[in-house]
Amino acid sequence: MNKIYRPNVAAIIVSSEYPNTKDIFVAQRCDMKNIWQFPQGGIDEGEDAPTALFRELEEEIGTNDIEIIAEYPEWISYDFPQHIAKKMKPFAGQTQRYYLVKLSKDAKINLDTDHPEFDDYKFVKADEVLNEIAKFKKDVYTKVVNHFQDEGLL
After folding, report:
1. 7: which of 16, 49, 78, 92 lies 20 to 30 Å off by Cα?
2. How far apart, in whole angstroms, are the C-alpha atoms of residue 118 and residue 87?
3. 127 is in which domain, residue-wise?
């Protein structure tokens, strides 16, 4: 049986001080304390990835006032752990399109959205990101962050 992956977008966000400062935005999930992640979300039917990116950022962090700097060159997938897969049926995991984005100078982050997913956020160094995330996302985060570092973008 083939696994089904949910199409998804994810944003590696840098501040308006980029490229002088290359710290990365991570947000703490409301439902899992001490688990931090990049904003991400599903791509709706008929929606392209960049449109989903802007919509998801507005829904999750209260702003889509960003500039896309770069896009990871391919879709990248991961499997959900069993306890999450049960809730996400029929999806075994997600296949994601990653974007490196810069907040505009006037962007205002607001986590108190209609359906809050995060209760805190911070900016951290690229090498700190991997210490803060859910283990099942570590390989994907490592691959994507390393790619943007190799490109000289982080």
Report:
1. 16
2. 19
3. 5-136
